[in-house]
Predict the 3D structure of the following.
Amino acid sequence: MTSGHHSRVFGKRAQEHILILASGDRVRHMTVRPWMAAVAFCFVGVFSIGYLLATSYLVLRDDLIGATMARQARMQHDYEDRIAALRAQVDRITSRQLLDQQVVEDKVDKLMEQQMALTSRHGKLDNLLDRAESSGLTGKDAPAANVPAQSYAPDIKDKRASLTGGAQAIEKMLAGDSKPADAETPDNSTLAYVPSEETVGDRADRIFSKVTLSLKSVEQDQKSRIELLTSDAGNAADTIQGVLDRFHITVPAEAIAAKEDEDDAVGGPYVEPESNGDFNNSLVQLDGALTRLEAVRSTAEALPFRNPAIGKEVTSPFGNRRDPFLGRLALHSGIDFRFSPGERIRPTAPGKVIAAGWTGGYGNMVEVNHGNGISTRYGHMSEVLVKVGDTVDRNDVIGLAGSTGRSTGTHLHYEVRQDGHAVDPIYFMNAGLKLATYIK
C-alpha cells in the first residue's frame, strides 16, 4: 500500500541497472551503481588524454628537434661574431700602438696654435669688456623694486671667466688631471669579455678629440658673447636714443667722434691684418656699438631725468590750478614737493648755475643749465648755497628748503624748462624710470 501511495504521489521509481554474469551453471548479479559509472568515465577520459598527448609528441617531435638545432646554430653564430669582434679590437689596438710620434707632435702643435690664437683674442677683448662694464652692461646691481629688471645686460665677469676657462680646461686635459666621462668602463653588453687597459694611443686620440672640441667650443663662445654684447649695446643705445628723441634732444656727432678719438696716442709700423676676418669684424662692430652707447649714455646722464624729491609728497602738480593768493585760475609751471624746513636740496643732473638768489615770486631760487636747451629751477629755498658760474653735480647741495617768495608753506618748487618754456617735469621723471637701468 505504501509503495502504491508513493507511485501516485512522486511517479515511478528509477530502475536500477543490473549486470548479469553467467559462467556455466553459475549466474552472478551485479548492480551498477552511479559512482561505478563515474569511475569508469574518468578512467576512459584519462586514457584518452594520454593517448592524445603521446600522439602529439610523435607528430611534433621533428619540429622540436629542428628548433633545438636552430637555436644551437644561432648560439654558434653569436659566438663567431664575438670572436670576430675580439679580433677586430686586437687589430685596432695593434694599429694604435704603431702610430708615428711625429703625427702626435703635429697634433699637439696644431692644438697649441689654436689655444694661443684664442688667448690672443681674449687679450683683444679685455679693453672692450672693460668699456662694456663701465657702460652699464653688467648685472651686478639689482634694480630697485619700482625699476624694470635689467634683462639686457649679461654679467661681464661671467664673460671673462668663460673666455679663460677653456685654456685652463685644456691644460688639465693635457696634464691628465681630468678624466672625461667617456673614459669610464665601456658597455660590454655585446661583447662577453673584459676589454684591455687603455693604451697610450687611445688616450692620445681621446684627449686630442676632447681638446679640439673644447677649443672650438671656446671659440664659438667668444663669437656668440661678442655678438650678444654688440646686440645688448645696440639695444641699450636704441632705448636711450628713443627717449632722447621724444624730447627732441640729439646726440652731437662730435660726441661720437670724440669717443672714437679718445685713443689717439697710438702708432707703430703697418702690418697686414690677421686672417681671422670674422672675429675682427665682430670686434669692430662691438667697438662701434659701445662708442654709440657711451655717447647717448653720457648725453642722457647730463639731463634732469631724476626725481628731485624721492619719497616726498606732491602738494601741487604741473598745470592750471587755482592760485593760492589771487583765487583765480593760473598756470603752475612746476611741481611742488613737501619738504621739512632746512632740508637739503640737490640738483637732478650735473650742470652750471646760471641763476642763484632772490627771484621774484620764486623767492630764493637756483637755476641750473644742463645743456641741450634744458635747465631746472629750484624755488622757495630758505638759503642758497651756490653762486652763479658754479659747476654742480647730482650729489652737491645747492640750498636748503624753505618758504620764501609766493609760498604758503615749506616746500620745493621744481621746474624744468626746455628752450625757455616750462614743461611738465613728470615727463622727465617717467623717462628717468625707463632709463634707470641704463644710466648712473
In short: The radius of gyration is 49 Å. The longest strand covers residues 374-384. Residues 1-7, 139-166, 177-185, 188-192 have pLDDT under 50 and may be disordered. DSSP finds eight helices and 14 strands in the chain.
